[in-house]
């Protein structure tokens, strides 16, 4: 079993960044092009905010002219910070207590990436499945604990019921295994 998984172990070092002076329309077009729902607003190399799909939509709903309005007028506060050396459990704790769906990741004081809720959930759920594989097996005949010494290559029969739906990406409590995918009730009905 792999213990002490750090943020460095799970983060994708790529992120999408925009300037405060970019227009909301340009930033939104970039989000669509890069297939992301959040961009980091940078002043030089320092994150000063976030622009989410929600922020961009709010600009349009408020009657703002997204083609002319700068990102600095529509952005949200920056996400909470964490270092690459932090444990994944610490990252999950910050996300749940803030609540935040992203964390700004720093390495030796320099911004290096954006940690997503999906990355944290994947890391924590894979650890629980790994720990299930490492559990000793009970011998049905005499109740003694035995291990068979083999590497487990099969799917876990039980899994955490709170995770991310592999179809829609929602964090839900009730997942079912359908055709090898963990999916929520809404996606099962489709």
UniProtKB/TrEMBL annotation:
Residues 160-190 form the ACP-type MB domain. InterPro entries: ACP_MB (IPR044065), CBS_dom (IPR000644), CBS_dom_sf (IPR046342), Diverse_CBS-Domain (IPR051257). The keyword Oxidoreductase does not apply. SMART domains: CBS (SM00116). One of its GO terms (molecular function) is metal ion binding. Zn(2+) binds at residues 165, 168, 184, 187. It comes from the Archaea. Keywords: CBS domain, Iron, Metal-binding, Zinc. Residues 75-131 form the CBS domain. CDD domains: CBS_pair_SF. Fe cation binds at residues 165, 168, 184, 187. The keyword Metal-binding applies. PANTHER family: CBS DOMAIN-CONTAINING PROTEIN, CBS DOMAIN-CONTAINING PROTEIN CBSX3, MITOCHONDRIAL. This is CBS domain-containing protein. It comes from Halogranum salarium B-1.
